[in-house]
Q: What sequence folds into this?
């Protein structure tokens, strides 16, 4: 068929009822079209077995074994996840490159009477569109950075702006990382998975409106920002959020309560700072953590580690400051007021 995903934007208006990824679970876990379900025609073990026979024995024997496996797995899917689909159901099926796996499964579904289509080029078509969107062209968006030292509740404020209709790009949410060595939020997506999430989020944005993006480095945890986005962020004007060190320390201790409650994890994270801060200072910080002095620890971390690094990073880029937002405290009322002020400023751009 002609590729219905001629652009990433068409993902938002796909005419299909279900997108089915028939690749093996490990392939699906690395990256997949957003919203797709995984109904593998060969599981990870079966795929490896067929591949080995193909290379070491005979392509014919590999195809024969693979066909039997595909038929058994297709039957399992038809009797299981697809059992409630009616005659009007329209799925889109894809594999790695639109080859034997997707066409074999689609052929069986067509025999039942379902109007199934195969994505031409398979996952590789999707991946090509993601790469084109993120790396081959300048981004058509007016980026505005939400800047401020650690503990100024930038992520919280960004989410409040979004909830009030502001256009935002939540990089930390997409990368599943809070942007510092203390920032892991479970397992991060693969680089390809991060880029798929990012490209999909960008495709849903309105280029005529400014996009608020939290100021980040070019790397969020273990994931790298695409060069075009990073270049746009480096040239973008910023809205700066300010708060006192004491207020930020109190907020940070509360925001990272999940981390400070795990002493072993806290020790591991502090150990990562030894090359930058030395053993004596890290031992003092570790003692604060062990005695539960988390506000003092947060204040020390910001004063000696995060604030100097932020200032050094800012000095490299001559960002225009559109607005200074001063938080007198870190209360919910103050954060909501900050978000509303930022929305008002964005609406003037």
A:
């Amino acid at each position: 068929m002609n590729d219905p995903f001629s652009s990433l934007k068409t993902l938002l208006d796909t005419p299909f009822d279900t997108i089915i990824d028939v690749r093996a679970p490990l392939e699906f876990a690395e990256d997949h079209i957003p919203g797709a379900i995984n109904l593998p025609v060969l599981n990870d073990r079966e795929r490896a077995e067929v591949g080995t026979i193909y290379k070491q024995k005979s392509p014919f024997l590999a195809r024969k074994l693979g066909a039997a496996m595909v038929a058994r797995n297709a039957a399992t899917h038809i009797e299981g996840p697809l059992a409630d689909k009616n005659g009007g159901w329209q799925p889109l099926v894809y594999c790695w490159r639109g080859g034997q796996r997707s066409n074999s499964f689609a052929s069986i579904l067509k025999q039942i009477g379902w109007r199934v289509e195969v994505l031409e080029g398979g996952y590789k078509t999707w991946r090509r569109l993601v790469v084109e969107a993120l790396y081959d062209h300048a981004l058509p968006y007016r980026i505005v950075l939400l800047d401020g030292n650690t503990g100024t509740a930038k992520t919280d404020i960004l989410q409040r702006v979004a909830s009030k209709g502001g256009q935002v790009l939540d990089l930390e949410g997409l990368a599943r990382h809070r942007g510092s060595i203390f920032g892991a939020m479970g397992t991060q997506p693969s680089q390809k998975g991060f880029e798929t999430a990012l490209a999909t989020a960008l495709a849903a944005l309105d280029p005529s409106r400014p996009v608020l993006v939290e100021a980040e480095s070019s790397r969020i945890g273990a994931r790298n920002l695409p060069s075009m986005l990073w270049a746009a962020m480096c040239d973008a004007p910023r809205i700066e959020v300010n708060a006192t060190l004491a207020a930020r320390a109190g907020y940070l201790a509360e925001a990272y309560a999940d981390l400070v409650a795990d002493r072993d994890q806290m020790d591991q994270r502090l150990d990562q700072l030894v090359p930058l801060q030395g053993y004596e200072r890290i031992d003092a910080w570790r003692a604060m953590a062990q005695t539960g002095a988390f506000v003092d620890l947060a204040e020390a971390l910001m004063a000696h580690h995060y604030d100097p690094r932020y200032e050094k990073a800012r000095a490299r880029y001559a960002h225009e400051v559109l607005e200074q937002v001063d938080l007198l405290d870190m209360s919910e009322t103050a954060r909501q007021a900050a978000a509303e002020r930022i929305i008002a400023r964005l609406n003037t751009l």
